[in-house]
Amino acid sequence: MNTAGNPEKARRWLEEARSRTPHHSDGSILGSMTTAPHPIGVEAFKEFIHVNGNDPVIYPVVEEASRILIEGVGALLGAEHGIHTSGGTESNILALYIGRRISRGRENTVVAPSSVHRSIDKACLLMGCRLVKIPVDPLKPVDPGVLEEYVRKHKPFAVVVTAGTTEAGVVDPVKEAGEIAEEHGVFLHVDAAYGGLLIPFLHRRGYLAEDLRMYPGVSSISVDMHKNGCAPIPSSILFLSRRDYIEEACFEMEYMPRGRSCGLLGTRPGGAVIAAAAVFMTIGAKGYEENAVRMMENALYLHENLSHLPMITSYKPILPLNVFKSTIYTYEELFKALLDRKLYVYKSPSLQALRVVVMPHVEKAHLDRLINALKSIHGV
Ligand code: PLP
What we know:
Layout: H1 7-19, H2 39-47, H3 60-77, E1 81-85, H4 88-102, E2 107-113, H5 118-127, E3 130-134, H6 144-154, E4 156-162, H7 174-184, E5 187-191, H8 199-204, E6 220-224, E7 236-240, H9 244-248, E8 250-252, E9 260-262, H10 270-307, E10 312-315, E11 321-326, H11 331-340, E12 346-348, E13 353-357, H12 364-377
Parallel strand pairs: 2-3, 2-4, 4-5, 5-6
Antiparallel strand pairs: 1-7, 6-7, 8-9, 10-11, 11-13, 12-13
Helix pairs in contact: 2-10, 3-10, 4-5, 6-7, 10-12
């Protein structure tokens, strides 16, 4: 066996792989909560690709970037403290880990509506805690009265609600959940991985009644920068209501310059946090607000057009996320038919439907292509 390196072969493979890998700019990626990273993010990521985000002593720029993000995004949510993580899943696991560390005398249980993201199941599996799900209509937020009943009955150490659910964009009642958490002494984590950079703007612009803040009783909020923040993957922020909660997320690591490491990962892409900060600075709150409005208008455009198709049921979007189904094909069949046409949507299994997430890169022309494909599949 020839074990010599073969740079030519590697290049050929990369070139060939590039030619068959879809890109957001071609308009085919319509279901994923990812988007094309902003060019300054790509530049920063490349420039700082060698930086270990776990070593703020050699690389103080990592802490600077983290501060820029926490102050900037935190200002939108009334949050002051936080930690940069490598995505919504890490943020959710870390939030529950912190919640369990600070809980005293409560059951090893987490309560969450059934619409919660699967990473909460993952966190509970990893931590060996029981996850009690409140059955909810996937198109509706959890009822605060029912949430309180579950908290009374199960005495959880943590409650998780979602501000922008994965399958339907539903916004749970964060303020009311905060009141319940405060009254019962429970850690409340708000998963705003998807909605964190949409809800404050869409609320202000009159598209949405709910707002998102670090309300009294809220302990943590996660916001993904690699979703609507237009930052390169992987990038998320876990906001915490108290500075000392950050300590609970730190682990002894004697050989490191500071003797410890905060967050779940060890060596991690420092370029990602620097890139996210550069993107946030470049776009600014005003730019994110304009993005949110444009995305929402596009989602309403898609809904309007789908509603006119006789064999499609389309649900009115709450956030820029469209859910629709066919009256003649199962959602799995329709998924496959779109996949065959190189249109990549995702599924909303709880609604037996498909999901389009109108991310910053999605243009009306891309949506028109989808509408035309649906017409042709249904013979309209
Ligand atoms: N939370 C919500 C509400 C999500 O929609 C997602 C992903 O879509 C996540 C968490 C997990 O994020 P990530 O894929 O970045 O780990």
